[in-house]
Amino acid sequence: TNTATYKRGAFILFEGCDRTGKSTQANKLFEYLQSTGHSVKLWKFPDRTTPIGQTINAYLTNNQELDDKAIHLLFSANRWESLPKLKNLLLGGTTLIVDRYAYSGVSYSVAKGLDLDWCRCPDIGLLRPDIIIFMDLSIEESEKRGGFGEERYEKKNFQEKVCKSFSQLKQKDDDDSLWKFLDAKQSVERLHEQIVKISLDLIENCSQLPLKEDLWK
Ligand code: FDM
Ligand code: MG
């Protein structure tokens, strides 16, 4: 088979607590890759545009109440419903920059007291990212960044729990090498430089590898 010419895109994931700079860095990376001629797409979870996403949005903006397990499953369903699209993009050679994914899914629900293994189940078998760029920042620092917003989870004591569940999840992750912790206290430009370098290496290295549809398997 002619695998030599086959090039898939890379799945670059940004994760972390609120106000750690995920969206800023995801946007900057997107602009950089686009301006240097890469085929690239930016994707954000939750995707609030679908019917499931609209229910999630109503929940996050405190306009609707839902059982903790029910909303957990909706966040997961919101990923499953986008899987065919994301898969096609990657297979067609487009690099995906994704802002939050199943790791947020598990960490926020575990912070509410749900069991970690139970929380991972619905996302088993989703696409596995090629890298998780984890924006690491203390709650004190993220609070300094203009404070948290008005949405459901944007409270200091809850964010502390989310940070703890993220590190619990990383420890339990079978593929520890995926996680790239960055000190998010650095300047936007310094972080961007590091992220560009990591991403260019990754795009090169994973272009010949098959897609990994085995998250947490
Ligand atoms: N969130 C996000 C979850 O609780 N579960 C998930 O699966 C995902 C993807 O939704 F508080 C939470 C994290 C955050 C909120 O995310 C909305 P943004 O990035 O702030 O829009
Ligand atoms: Mg938010």
TrEMBL record:
Enumerate the UniProt keywords alphabetically: ATP-binding, Kinase, Nucleotide biosynthesis, Nucleotide-binding, Transferase
Keyword Transferase part of the UniProt annotation: yes
Organism superkingdom: Eukaryota
GO MF terms, alphabetically ordered: ATP binding; dTMP kinase activity; nucleoside diphosphate kinase activity
What top-tier enzyme class does this entry carry?
transferase
GO cellular component, alphabetical, reads: cytosol; mitochondrion; nucleus
Pfam families tied to this protein = Thymidylate_kin
Coiled-coil parts of chain: none
- Fetch the SUPFAM superfamilies from UniProt: P-loop containing nucleoside triphosphate hydrolases
State the EC number(s). Answer: 2.7.4.9
* ATP-binding found in the keyword field: yes
The UniProt family comment states: Belongs to the thymidylate kinase family.
Stated name of the protein:
Thymidylate kinase
Gene source species: Funneliformis geosporum
Classification of source organism: Eukaryota, Fungi, Fungi incertae sedis, Mucoromycota, Glomeromycotina
